[in-house]
Amino acid sequence: SKEPAAFQGKVLVVLSSDKVLTLRDGAQHPTGFFMNELGVPLQALIKAGYEPVFANPEGNQPVMDANSDKAALFANTAEYEAVKELLKDAKLAHPQKLSAIAGGDLNQYVGIFVPGGHAPMEDLWKDASLGKILRHFHGKNQPTALICHGPIALLSTLSKPLELATALE
Fold it and tell me: Given this model, what pLDDT does residue 164 score?
């Protein structure tokens, strides 16, 4: 078996605390993180020797969007099964609160990763703690990776993200 890579540091993996997406008409649709958008990059980080540290606004268990639990979204069945197993990690079920992360030592992380799914559109874009964390990473020129709907989290870096979001409607 191949030896694991030397420990490279911790990567903050930021997920949503929400499990529904509320539309303009008030309708709510079940959602969460997308299995492949979290799992495939997570596999690569771990293989490269990085330790994922999971966090979200409420410190509650993140929900996977059931629509993303499909082998067809992966390179092959083996990758799908490996990701399914990886997502059983107990640390994923008990993420830290973003406020605790923001109030702690941000220098212990070498990068930040925000996967997609529709859930970030509910809470991450307006989370002030996440804004502080993202500004820290930007100020230190540290890797910041955001996939699909994950970039909505960048709005959290603004002092008044709701005003911009309203102006863009």
Answer: 66
